[in-house]
Specification:
mainly alpha; 67% helix; 17 helices
């Protein structure tokens, strides 16, 4: 069930009405409704994988209790590693087994040994990387005695499978989400209306920006031999807008939907394309994953305490692991490596925390230095996105080769001017709202009411006008 589908447009109001107008006086019934709705939402993708989600939930729920009640450190460690091993084992089998099998076969073939390994002919369970990381953070936090286990199975299950975040995040923490699930929620009209605005902006990002940029990006990446170097540059830029509109659009819809039920999810994006260096970009892009790796990998490895060598080593590790988390392909690993390489100067010279505040805060326009830094950071990110989007390393190098050919000086081909203007307008709105949690949070609230509603209806009109075939969200494949 896609967020931008008719099915979801029917599903959401039904759950909302039952939640607030039928079960509003009983927190247990509300949570049970959220759990049943979430399982139905997930089963709409493939009901068979629902059993995997339930098994993972039960495993981590039982593990948390067993670790807390363990009579010895050895038994506590046993249950911890059992849960971690099984969780990562499922992730490894479904997501990475074929990659390792094929890579080993290719390596052996390179030295003259033929090997034909058995591979899995199964689809990747949607959202497995996200709900696995939910469970892992919960188990690790209990093991480290940061939190106590949740004994209400329904409440814990909602934490893992709450439908707005189930298939593509944000990656929640038990310390943030579980207390909200356990406390009585009171309907707040202002919060709900704000949630609807965030959903509206998320739909605009997905349907108008991402899906239309995808048409051009797919054309160039899938048939790159037919296009000039300048067209390749435009195609890469369109993909940069596609993946941002697609994933941040999903996140906005997820956060807005959760707010309709009185729940605040972790923020996942904070205008990353207005970043002035790569370090700032990664503080603003997929925030829940970046902070997950920081807290559960970077800091346990020693973080920044051991001098430049340890900082460099740990930075490369988390970026390579992050690349591998995104997919079982060498292109994702190279994408992670490039981002680690781009961030290295700020790590070595300790300038990675120079840009903590919002760019041009309190001002309408950036300085020339800020603008130049934003363009350079965007260019570096877009270059790395080429590997993220390419089907193979060969395709990525061919794509880049065309960019550095003489055809880069020719006119780009087949550009839809209306999409370019929509992208420009989109970035203007994002820039004007960059100091808020999402672009429409405050924008227009002080306008005369007729003008404000014209603005909202214009967005709705564009969503319907540019709606084509519903395209799956990019991050569903991770």
């Amino acid at each position: 069930m896609l967020f931008n589908s008719l099915d979801f447009a029917l599903f959401l109001p039904v759950v909302f009405v039952l939640y607030w107008f039928v079960m509003n006086k009983n927190l247990k019934l509300q949570n049970f409704l959220l759990l049943v709705s979430s399982y139905y939402f997930y089963a709409c993708w493939d009901w068979r994988f629902l059993f995997l989600l339930v098994f993972s939930t039960v495993l981590d729920y039982v593990t948390g209790l067993k670790m807390h009640d363990a009579k010895s450190a050895g038994m506590k460690k046993f249950w911890f590693w059992l849960s971690v091993g099984i969780n990562l084992g499922f992730l490894g089998v479904f997501k990475y087994y074929n990659f390792f099998a094929q890579s080993l076969a290719d390596s052996l073939s390179a030295i003259g040994i033929h090997a034909d390994f058995w591979t899995l002919q199964v689809i990747l369970p949607v959202g497995i990387s996200f709900y696995t990381f939910h469970g892992l953070s919960y188990v690790i936090d209990i093991y480290k005695e940061r939190i106590k286990p949740e004994r209400n199975f329904v409440d814990y299950s909602v934490f893992v499978s709450f439908f707005p975040l189930l298939v593509a995040g944000p990656i929640e923490r038990a310390t943030h989400l579980l207390p909200q699930i356990q406390q009585k929620r009171i309907f707040n009209k202002e919060n709900a209306v704000d949630g609807l605005r965030q959903i509206l902006w998320g739909l605009f990002k997905k349907v108008v920006i991402a899906d239309n940029c995808a048409e051009y990006a797919n054309m160039v990446f899938n048939q790159s031999a037919d296009y000039s170097g300048s067209t390749h540059i435009v195609g890469a830029i369109f993909f940069a807008f596609q993946i941002y509109g697609d994933f941040s659009g999903y996140s906005d819809i997820a956060l807005g939907t959760a707010r309709l039920f009185g729940i605040d999810l972790l923020r996942n994006f904070s205008y990353p394309y207005f970043s002035r260096d790569i370090a700032e970009f990664w503080r603003r892009w997929h925030i829940s994953l970046s902070t997950w790796f920081r807290d559960y990998l970077y800091i346990p490895l020693g973080g920044s305490k051991g001098g430049n060598w340890m900082r460099v080593r740990n930075t490369f590790i988390i970026f390579l692991v992050s690349g591998f988390w995104h997919g079982a392909n060498w292109t994702f690993i190279v994408w992670g490596f490039l981002n680690a390489l781009f961030i290295m100067p700020s790590i070595i010279f300790r300038t990675n925390r120079n840009n903590l505040e919002t760019v041009a805060q309190g001002r309408l326009f950036p300085t020339l230095k800020e603008f130049t830094s934003i363009i350079i950071t965007f260019a570096l990110s877009t270059f790395a996105w080429i590997f993220f989007r390419a089907e193979s390393m060969t395709a990525a190098f061919h794509f880049i080769g065309e960019i550095f050919s003489t055809s880069v000086f020719s006119k780009p081909q087949n550009i839809r001017n209306e999409i370019v203007w929509l992208m420009v307008g989109f970035m203007v709105v994002e820039w004007l709202g960059r100091e808020q949690k999402y672009a429409l949070a405050k924008l227009g609230l002080n306008w005369p009411k007729p003008l404000r509603w014209i603005f909202y209806y214009a967005i709705i009109f564009l969503i319907f006008k540019f709606t084509g075939a519903n395209q799956q969200f990019i991050y569903f494949q991770f």
